[in-house]
Amino acid sequence: MNRKFVNTMVRRYLRFDREHPFIFLSAILAFLGIAIGVTVLIIAMAIMNGMEKEFEKRLFVMNYPLTIYPKVRGAIDDELLETLENKFIDLKFSPYMQSQVLVRNGGTLKGGLMFGIDPEREKEVNEVFAKAYNKSFGKYGVIIGKPLARELNIDIGDKIMFLFSKMEPAGLSMMPLAKRFRVEGLFRSGLNAYDESYYYTSFRSLEKILKRQPGQYDGIHIVSENPMHDIGLIRSELPSTVGIVGWWQQNGNFFAAMQMEKRALFIVLMLIILIASLNIVSSLLMTVMNRRNEVALLLSLGASKKEILQIFFRLGLIIGVGGVVVGTLLGLGGMELLKHFDIISLPEDVYGTSRLPLDLDWSDFVSIIVGAFIITLLSSFYPAKKASQIDSLKVLRNE
Protein backbone atom coordinates (compact mmCIF):
# COMPACT_ATOMS: atom_id res chain seq x y z
CA MET A 1 0.00 0.00 0.00
CA ASN A 2 1.33 3.44 -1.01
CA ARG A 3 1.11 5.41 2.27
CA LYS A 4 2.23 8.67 0.65
CA PHE A 5 -0.60 8.44 -1.89
CA VAL A 6 -3.16 7.67 0.86
CA ASN A 7 -2.00 10.59 3.03
CA THR A 8 -2.08 12.98 0.07
CA MET A 9 -5.64 12.06 -0.82
CA VAL A 10 -6.78 12.31 2.83
CA ARG A 11 -5.36 15.85 3.08
CA ARG A 12 -7.09 16.78 -0.16
CA TYR A 13 -10.49 15.49 0.93
CA LEU A 14 -10.21 17.29 4.27
CA ARG A 15 -10.00 20.67 2.56
CA PHE A 16 -13.02 22.88 2.09
CA ASP A 17 -14.68 22.15 -1.26
CA ARG A 18 -16.48 25.20 -2.71
CA GLU A 19 -18.44 23.03 -5.09
CA HIS A 20 -19.78 20.85 -2.23
CA PRO A 21 -19.81 22.99 0.94
CA PHE A 22 -22.47 20.87 2.64
CA ILE A 23 -20.11 17.90 2.78
CA PHE A 24 -17.58 19.96 4.74
CA LEU A 25 -20.34 21.37 6.95
CA SER A 26 -21.59 17.86 7.70
CA ALA A 27 -18.08 16.80 8.72
CA ILE A 28 -17.76 19.83 11.03
CA LEU A 29 -21.11 19.01 12.64
CA ALA A 30 -20.01 15.40 13.18
CA PHE A 31 -16.76 16.63 14.77
CA LEU A 32 -18.60 19.05 17.06
CA GLY A 33 -21.30 16.50 17.95
CA ILE A 34 -18.77 13.91 19.08
CA ALA A 35 -16.72 16.55 20.97
CA ILE A 36 -19.80 17.85 22.81
CA GLY A 37 -21.01 14.31 23.54
CA VAL A 38 -17.68 13.28 25.08
CA THR A 39 -17.52 16.55 27.06
CA VAL A 40 -21.00 16.11 28.50
CA LEU A 41 -20.38 12.43 29.26
CA ILE A 42 -17.13 13.13 31.14
CA ILE A 43 -18.64 15.94 33.24
CA ALA A 44 -21.85 13.97 33.91
CA MET A 45 -19.95 10.88 35.07
CA ALA A 46 -17.71 13.04 37.25
CA ILE A 47 -20.77 14.64 38.88
CA MET A 48 -22.43 11.25 39.44
CA ASN A 49 -19.28 9.81 41.03
CA GLY A 50 -18.76 12.95 43.09
CA MET A 51 -22.32 12.91 44.41
CA GLU A 52 -22.12 9.20 45.20
CA LYS A 53 -18.87 9.60 47.15
CA GLU A 54 -20.19 12.70 48.93
CA PHE A 55 -23.30 10.81 50.07
CA GLU A 56 -21.14 7.81 50.95
CA LYS A 57 -18.91 9.98 53.11
CA ARG A 58 -21.89 11.54 54.90
CA LEU A 59 -23.64 8.22 55.41
CA PHE A 60 -20.38 6.60 56.52
CA VAL A 61 -20.01 9.15 59.32
CA MET A 62 -23.57 8.93 60.64
CA ASN A 63 -24.14 5.19 60.06
CA TYR A 64 -20.72 3.98 61.30
CA PRO A 65 -18.69 1.35 59.41
CA LEU A 66 -19.97 -1.57 61.52
CA THR A 67 -22.79 -1.94 64.04
CA ILE A 68 -23.40 -4.82 66.45
CA TYR A 69 -27.07 -5.36 67.32
CA PRO A 70 -28.84 -7.77 69.71
CA LYS A 71 -31.11 -10.52 68.45
CA VAL A 72 -32.55 -10.93 71.95
CA ARG A 73 -32.94 -8.30 74.65
CA GLY A 74 -29.95 -7.90 76.96
CA ALA A 75 -27.52 -9.79 74.68
CA ILE A 76 -25.02 -6.88 74.53
CA ASP A 77 -23.29 -5.96 77.77
CA ASP A 78 -19.97 -4.87 79.24
CA GLU A 79 -18.64 -8.43 79.12
CA LEU A 80 -19.12 -8.71 75.36
CA LEU A 81 -17.67 -5.22 74.86
CA GLU A 82 -14.56 -6.08 76.88
CA THR A 83 -14.09 -9.35 74.99
CA LEU A 84 -14.22 -7.60 71.61
CA GLU A 85 -11.88 -4.82 72.70
CA ASN A 86 -9.31 -7.36 73.90
CA LYS A 87 -9.63 -9.39 70.70
CA PHE A 88 -9.59 -6.48 68.21
CA ILE A 89 -7.25 -3.91 69.73
CA ASP A 90 -6.92 -1.97 66.45
CA LEU A 91 -10.66 -1.21 66.26
CA LYS A 92 -12.62 1.46 68.11
CA PHE A 93 -15.87 0.60 69.90
CA SER A 94 -18.67 2.82 71.18
CA PRO A 95 -21.66 1.16 72.92
CA TYR A 96 -24.99 2.92 72.85
CA MET A 97 -28.56 2.85 74.10
CA GLN A 98 -31.40 4.25 72.04
CA SER A 99 -35.03 5.23 72.37
CA GLN A 100 -37.61 6.65 70.01
CA VAL A 101 -38.62 10.13 71.10
CA LEU A 102 -40.62 13.18 70.11
CA VAL A 103 -39.06 16.60 70.66
CA ARG A 104 -41.50 19.37 71.47
CA ASN A 105 -40.98 23.09 71.58
CA GLY A 106 -44.11 25.21 71.70
CA GLY A 107 -46.52 23.73 69.18
CA THR A 108 -43.82 21.98 67.13
CA LEU A 109 -43.28 18.21 67.33
CA LYS A 110 -40.42 16.31 65.67
CA GLY A 111 -39.70 12.59 65.86
CA GLY A 112 -36.31 10.94 66.10
CA LEU A 113 -33.89 8.71 68.00
CA MET A 114 -32.17 9.61 71.26
CA PHE A 115 -28.83 7.87 71.83
CA GLY A 116 -27.31 7.31 75.23
CA ILE A 117 -23.54 7.17 74.74
CA ASP A 118 -20.19 7.42 76.47
CA PRO A 119 -18.96 10.80 75.11
CA GLU A 120 -15.28 9.85 75.24
CA ARG A 121 -15.85 6.67 73.25
CA GLU A 122 -18.27 8.33 70.83
CA LYS A 123 -15.72 11.03 70.01
CA GLU A 124 -13.41 8.32 68.70
CA VAL A 125 -15.94 6.90 66.24
CA ASN A 126 -18.00 9.96 65.25
CA GLU A 127 -16.17 13.10 64.13
CA VAL A 128 -19.45 15.02 63.77
CA PHE A 129 -20.23 14.43 67.45
CA ALA A 130 -16.62 15.21 68.43
CA LYS A 131 -16.87 18.70 66.92
CA ALA A 132 -20.08 19.46 68.83
CA TYR A 133 -19.06 17.97 72.18
CA ASN A 134 -17.31 20.33 74.63
CA LYS A 135 -16.27 18.92 77.99
CA SER A 136 -18.92 16.74 79.59
CA PHE A 137 -22.64 16.19 79.67
CA GLY A 138 -24.44 17.94 82.49
CA LYS A 139 -27.48 16.43 84.14
CA TYR A 140 -29.97 15.74 81.36
CA GLY A 141 -27.82 17.46 78.79
CA VAL A 142 -28.36 16.79 75.09
CA ILE A 143 -26.62 17.50 71.78
CA ILE A 144 -28.90 18.06 68.77
CA GLY A 145 -28.51 19.03 65.11
CA LYS A 146 -28.16 22.65 64.04
CA PRO A 147 -31.04 22.47 61.50
CA LEU A 148 -33.36 21.22 64.24
CA ALA A 149 -32.22 23.98 66.61
CA ARG A 150 -32.84 26.54 63.89
CA GLU A 151 -36.29 25.13 63.15
CA LEU A 152 -37.24 25.14 66.85
CA ASN A 153 -35.61 28.54 67.39
CA ILE A 154 -33.40 27.37 70.25
CA ASP A 155 -29.69 27.61 71.03
CA ILE A 156 -27.09 26.21 73.40
CA GLY A 157 -28.28 26.63 76.99
CA ASP A 158 -31.99 26.49 76.13
CA LYS A 159 -34.25 23.67 77.31
CA ILE A 160 -36.50 21.47 75.19
CA MET A 161 -39.01 18.76 76.03
CA PHE A 162 -38.60 15.14 74.89
CA LEU A 163 -41.48 12.66 74.91
CA PHE A 164 -40.36 9.02 75.18
CA SER A 165 -42.10 5.91 73.89
CA LYS A 166 -42.04 4.55 77.44
CA MET A 167 -45.44 4.99 79.12
CA GLU A 168 -46.11 5.87 82.75
CA PRO A 169 -49.37 5.95 84.73
CA ALA A 170 -51.15 9.31 85.04
CA GLY A 171 -54.32 8.94 87.07
CA LEU A 172 -56.59 6.46 85.31
CA SER A 173 -54.66 6.56 82.01
CA MET A 174 -51.16 6.01 80.61
CA MET A 175 -49.12 8.94 79.34
CA PRO A 176 -45.81 9.01 77.47
CA LEU A 177 -42.85 9.78 79.67
CA ALA A 178 -41.72 13.40 79.25
CA LYS A 179 -38.40 14.94 80.27
CA ARG A 180 -36.89 18.37 79.80
CA PHE A 181 -33.28 18.46 78.53
CA ARG A 182 -30.75 21.27 78.33
CA VAL A 183 -29.08 21.80 74.93
CA GLU A 184 -25.31 21.57 75.43
CA GLY A 185 -24.08 21.34 71.86
CA LEU A 186 -25.07 21.50 68.20
CA PHE A 187 -23.76 19.23 65.46
CA ARG A 188 -23.94 19.44 61.65
CA SER A 189 -23.40 16.35 59.49
CA GLY A 190 -24.64 17.90 56.24
CA LEU A 191 -27.64 15.57 55.91
CA ASN A 192 -30.85 16.96 57.37
CA ALA A 193 -32.39 13.52 57.73
CA TYR A 194 -29.85 12.84 60.49
CA ASP A 195 -29.42 16.37 61.81
CA GLU A 196 -33.12 16.66 62.60
CA SER A 197 -33.67 13.18 64.03
CA TYR A 198 -30.53 12.19 66.01
CA TYR A 199 -30.04 13.37 69.61
CA TYR A 200 -27.16 12.45 71.94
CA THR A 201 -27.20 12.30 75.73
CA SER A 202 -25.24 10.43 78.40
CA PHE A 203 -25.80 6.85 79.53
CA ARG A 204 -26.59 8.13 83.00
CA SER A 205 -29.49 10.29 81.80
CA LEU A 206 -31.08 7.67 79.56
CA GLU A 207 -30.62 4.85 82.10
CA LYS A 208 -32.41 6.89 84.74
CA ILE A 209 -35.30 7.87 82.44
CA LEU A 210 -35.84 4.40 80.97
CA LYS A 211 -34.95 2.58 84.22
CA ARG A 212 -32.29 0.53 82.46
CA GLN A 213 -29.53 -1.45 84.17
CA PRO A 214 -26.00 0.01 83.75
CA GLY A 215 -23.83 -2.05 81.42
CA GLN A 216 -26.73 -3.17 79.20
CA TYR A 217 -26.65 -1.76 75.65
CA ASP A 218 -28.78 -1.69 72.52
CA GLY A 219 -25.77 -1.97 70.23
CA ILE A 220 -22.11 -1.17 69.62
CA HIS A 221 -20.77 1.11 66.90
CA ILE A 222 -17.38 0.11 65.48
CA VAL A 223 -14.86 2.05 63.41
CA SER A 224 -12.64 -0.03 61.12
CA GLU A 225 -10.25 0.89 58.33
CA ASN A 226 -11.37 -2.17 56.38
CA PRO A 227 -14.92 -2.96 57.51
CA MET A 228 -15.71 -5.35 54.64
CA HIS A 229 -12.84 -7.57 55.81
CA ASP A 230 -13.29 -7.13 59.56
CA ILE A 231 -17.02 -7.88 59.56
CA GLY A 232 -16.31 -11.58 58.99
CA LEU A 233 -13.68 -11.73 61.74
CA ILE A 234 -15.93 -10.03 64.27
CA ARG A 235 -18.93 -12.17 63.33
CA SER A 236 -16.94 -15.32 64.12
CA GLU A 237 -16.38 -14.04 67.67
CA LEU A 238 -19.99 -13.09 68.37
CA PRO A 239 -22.50 -15.31 70.18
CA SER A 240 -25.60 -16.48 68.34
CA THR A 241 -27.71 -13.92 70.21
CA VAL A 242 -25.86 -11.03 68.55
CA GLY A 243 -25.58 -9.92 64.92
CA ILE A 244 -23.41 -7.45 62.99
CA VAL A 245 -24.16 -5.29 59.94
CA GLY A 246 -22.04 -2.98 57.77
CA TRP A 247 -22.97 0.51 56.61
CA TRP A 248 -23.06 -0.67 52.96
CA GLN A 249 -25.68 -3.28 53.91
CA GLN A 250 -27.83 -0.73 55.75
CA ASN A 251 -27.85 1.54 52.69
CA GLY A 252 -27.59 -1.08 49.94
CA ASN A 253 -30.78 -0.07 48.12
CA PHE A 254 -29.71 3.58 47.99
CA PHE A 255 -26.32 2.88 46.41
CA ALA A 256 -27.77 0.24 44.09
CA ALA A 257 -30.22 2.86 42.82
CA MET A 258 -27.38 5.35 42.29
CA GLN A 259 -25.38 2.77 40.34
CA MET A 260 -28.39 1.99 38.14
CA GLU A 261 -28.95 5.70 37.54
CA LYS A 262 -25.29 6.12 36.65
CA ARG A 263 -25.39 3.27 34.12
CA ALA A 264 -28.61 4.59 32.59
CA LEU A 265 -27.10 8.07 32.27
CA PHE A 266 -23.96 6.63 30.65
CA ILE A 267 -26.05 4.78 28.04
CA VAL A 268 -28.27 7.78 27.29
CA LEU A 269 -25.32 10.16 26.89
CA MET A 270 -23.42 7.64 24.80
CA LEU A 271 -26.37 7.83 22.39
CA ILE A 272 -25.41 11.49 21.83
CA ILE A 273 -22.06 10.29 20.47
CA LEU A 274 -23.81 7.60 18.44
CA ILE A 275 -26.16 10.17 16.88
CA ALA A 276 -23.22 12.47 16.14
CA SER A 277 -21.40 9.57 14.49
CA LEU A 278 -24.26 9.29 12.00
CA ASN A 279 -23.03 12.62 10.63
CA ILE A 280 -19.69 10.93 9.96
CA VAL A 281 -21.50 8.24 7.98
CA SER A 282 -23.55 10.75 6.01
CA SER A 283 -20.55 13.04 5.40
CA LEU A 284 -18.37 10.20 4.11
CA LEU A 285 -21.18 8.76 2.01
CA MET A 286 -21.76 12.17 0.41
CA THR A 287 -18.02 12.45 -0.22
CA VAL A 288 -18.00 9.01 -1.83
CA MET A 289 -21.06 9.76 -3.98
CA ASN A 290 -19.72 13.12 -5.14
CA ARG A 291 -16.28 11.74 -5.90
CA ARG A 292 -17.31 8.49 -7.55
CA ASN A 293 -15.77 9.52 -10.85
CA GLU A 294 -12.52 10.45 -9.13
CA VAL A 295 -12.45 7.18 -7.17
CA ALA A 296 -13.17 5.18 -10.34
CA LEU A 297 -10.37 7.01 -12.14
CA LEU A 298 -7.95 6.30 -9.29
CA LEU A 299 -8.88 2.63 -9.41
CA SER A 300 -8.37 2.50 -13.16
CA LEU A 301 -4.95 4.17 -12.79
CA GLY A 302 -3.75 1.48 -10.42
CA ALA A 303 -4.95 2.43 -6.97
CA SER A 304 -5.94 -0.67 -5.00
CA LYS A 305 -9.27 -1.16 -3.24
CA LYS A 306 -7.37 -1.35 0.04
CA GLU A 307 -5.89 2.11 -0.56
CA ILE A 308 -9.33 3.57 -1.37
CA LEU A 309 -10.74 1.96 1.79
CA GLN A 310 -7.86 3.43 3.84
CA ILE A 311 -8.42 6.92 2.43
CA PHE A 312 -12.06 7.15 3.48
CA PHE A 313 -11.54 5.17 6.68
CA ARG A 314 -8.85 7.64 7.77
CA LEU A 315 -11.12 10.54 6.90
CA GLY A 316 -13.72 9.19 9.33
CA LEU A 317 -11.09 8.48 11.99
CA ILE A 318 -9.69 11.99 11.79
CA ILE A 319 -13.14 13.50 12.25
CA GLY A 320 -14.16 11.08 15.02
CA VAL A 321 -10.90 10.79 16.94
CA GLY A 322 -10.39 14.54 16.63
CA GLY A 323 -13.82 15.03 18.22
CA VAL A 324 -12.98 12.56 21.00
CA VAL A 325 -9.67 14.32 21.77
CA VAL A 326 -11.21 17.79 21.77
CA GLY A 327 -14.17 16.54 23.83
CA THR A 328 -11.81 14.97 26.36
CA LEU A 329 -9.83 18.20 26.73
CA LEU A 330 -13.04 20.23 27.06
CA GLY A 331 -14.47 17.76 29.59
CA LEU A 332 -11.35 17.77 31.78
CA GLY A 333 -11.09 21.54 31.45
CA GLY A 334 -14.76 21.93 32.39
CA MET A 335 -14.19 19.78 35.48
CA GLU A 336 -11.30 21.97 36.62
CA LEU A 337 -13.40 25.07 36.01
CA LEU A 338 -16.31 23.73 38.07
CA LYS A 339 -13.95 22.63 40.85
CA HIS A 340 -12.28 26.01 41.32
CA PHE A 341 -15.16 28.39 40.59
CA ASP A 342 -18.67 28.40 42.08
CA ILE A 343 -20.37 28.42 38.69
CA ILE A 344 -23.00 25.98 39.99
CA SER A 345 -24.00 26.16 43.65
CA LEU A 346 -26.11 23.55 45.43
CA PRO A 347 -28.53 23.97 48.35
CA GLU A 348 -26.39 22.78 51.26
CA ASP A 349 -29.35 21.66 53.36
CA VAL A 350 -30.33 19.18 50.62
CA TYR A 351 -27.01 17.86 49.31
CA GLY A 352 -24.76 18.45 52.30
CA THR A 353 -22.39 20.66 50.31
CA SER A 354 -22.69 23.95 48.43
CA ARG A 355 -19.92 23.05 45.95
CA LEU A 356 -20.58 20.72 43.04
CA PRO A 357 -18.69 17.48 43.85
CA LEU A 358 -16.66 16.12 40.93
CA ASP A 359 -14.71 12.88 40.86
CA LEU A 360 -14.04 11.09 37.57
CA ASP A 361 -13.27 7.39 37.95
CA TRP A 362 -10.52 6.03 35.71
CA SER A 363 -12.79 3.12 34.75
CA ASP A 364 -15.50 5.55 33.63
CA PHE A 365 -12.97 7.69 31.76
CA VAL A 366 -11.57 4.66 29.90
CA SER A 367 -15.12 3.43 29.14
CA ILE A 368 -16.03 6.80 27.61
CA ILE A 369 -12.91 6.97 25.43
CA VAL A 370 -13.11 3.33 24.33
CA GLY A 371 -16.87 3.56 23.66
CA ALA A 372 -16.50 6.74 21.59
CA PHE A 373 -13.54 5.26 19.69
CA ILE A 374 -15.46 2.06 18.83
CA ILE A 375 -18.45 4.09 17.60
CA THR A 376 -16.09 6.16 15.43
CA LEU A 377 -14.46 3.04 13.97
CA LEU A 378 -17.81 1.49 13.07
CA SER A 379 -19.09 4.76 11.60
CA SER A 380 -16.00 5.16 9.42
CA PHE A 381 -15.80 1.61 8.17
CA TYR A 382 -19.11 1.34 6.29
CA PRO A 383 -18.64 4.38 3.96
CA ALA A 384 -15.01 3.38 3.38
CA LYS A 385 -16.12 -0.13 2.44
CA LYS A 386 -18.69 1.27 0.01
CA ALA A 387 -16.03 3.47 -1.59
CA SER A 388 -13.71 0.49 -2.12
CA GLN A 389 -16.54 -1.45 -3.83
CA ILE A 390 -17.12 1.13 -6.58
CA ASP A 391 -17.13 -0.50 -10.03
CA SER A 392 -14.70 1.71 -11.96
CA LEU A 393 -15.63 0.29 -15.40
CA LYS A 394 -19.35 0.90 -14.85
CA VAL A 395 -18.82 4.43 -13.52
CA LEU A 396 -16.45 5.46 -16.33
CA ARG A 397 -18.68 3.92 -19.01
CA ASN A 398 -21.66 5.92 -17.78
CA GLU A 399 -19.61 9.09 -17.79
From TrEMBL:
Keywords: Cell membrane, Membrane, Transmembrane, Transmembrane helix. InterPro entries: ABC3_permease_C, Lipoprotein-release_system, MacB_PCD. Residues 28-210 form the MacB-like periplasmic core domain. It comes from Hydrogenimonas cancrithermarum. The chain crosses the membrane at residues 21-48, 264-290, 311-332, 365-384. It is a multi-pass membrane protein. This is Membrane protein. Its main location: membrane. It is found in: Cell membrane.
